[in-house]
Amino acid sequence: MEKQAKRQNIFFLILWNVILLSLILLIQGNAFGQYKKASPKLQGWMKGWSINVNGGKTTFYGDVSLYDSEFSEKLRKESSWAYGFILSRQMSPVIGLSGQMLFGSLVGTNSKSRFEANIMEYSFSLTFNLLNILIPKNDAHFFPYLKGGMGQFKYKSTLSYTDQNLDDRVVIADAPEFMYIFGAGAYYKINHTFDVNLEITSRMIYNDKLDGTKSNKDYDYYAYLSIGITYKINNKPRDPRYFRKMGMKSKLIRRR
């Protein structure tokens, strides 16, 4: 247990350092690029990066849940909250690569018990821009996408019984659990720097004890319905007025 916890702490420390270093390099390049022109390779690497902050509702599907086929009731009675951070890079007009960290909770009830769980996950995903597949080189402000990926998560669940004579059951993941992610969403482009998005994804896990109950029938899973805002780190517009304002040179500005 202690060795697993140490290995996990080391992994998270390395992951956070990599993310922070990437952000520092990207922001530094964006802030000081006007004074010194970067090499073509570095300029290419710096393009397409973005940071997304999101929050929304989680819904659990498993043994301890009642409203699996009634989405509105599920959101109203068996949902909780989560928030996350995504670092992404648009590899091409169609394909994007992203890493996400998500923190939140899950709840569920049935006639005999109720459970609550705290979750923390990290994952890597690919997104596929459907509009750019169908209409290449479009200049739309709204575009839908598909998302798929995989990751790991940890949890701590507490199962409470309606029978007062039964003690609560606590289940803690000894090691990160594996999961698949798939879903869809849509972005709306506000301007060259900011987007907003709506997304729904399912987390399919190889675990039937997330809710503290094991039936050996189907694995548990949960969904995340979120709204987020994206900041595009190095996505400067090509309008010549922008370059004049910043005191920069542009091929679009006529020399006198």
From the alpha carbons, calculate the radius of gyration and give it in angstroms: 22 Å
Mean pLDDT: 81
What is the tally of beta strands? Answer: 9
- What is the CATH top level name of the largest domain? Mainly Beta
Low-confidence region ranges: 31-35, 250-256
Number of domains: 2
List the secondary-structure elements in sequence, H or E.
HHEHEEEHEEEEEH
Give the overall silhouette. Answer: elongated
Strand content: over 45%
CATH architecture term of the largest domain: Beta Barrel
What's the end-to-end separation, in Å? 71 Å
Strand order of the largest sheet: 1-2-3-4-5-7-8-9
Q: What is the CATH T-level topology of the largest domain?
A: Porin
State the secondary-structure class.
alpha+beta
Number of helices in the DSSP assignment: 5
Q: Biggest sheet: strands, sense, closure?
A: 8 strands, antiparallel, barrel
Structure explained in plain terms:
The protein has five helices and nine strands, in the order H-H-E-H-E-E-E-H-E-E-E-E-E-H. With 256 residues, the protein is of the alpha+beta class. The protein has two domains: 1-48; 50-232, Beta Barrel (Porin). The longest helix is centred in the N-terminal third of the chain and has 31 residues, at 2-32. The model is unreliable at 31-35 and 250-256 (pLDDT under 50).
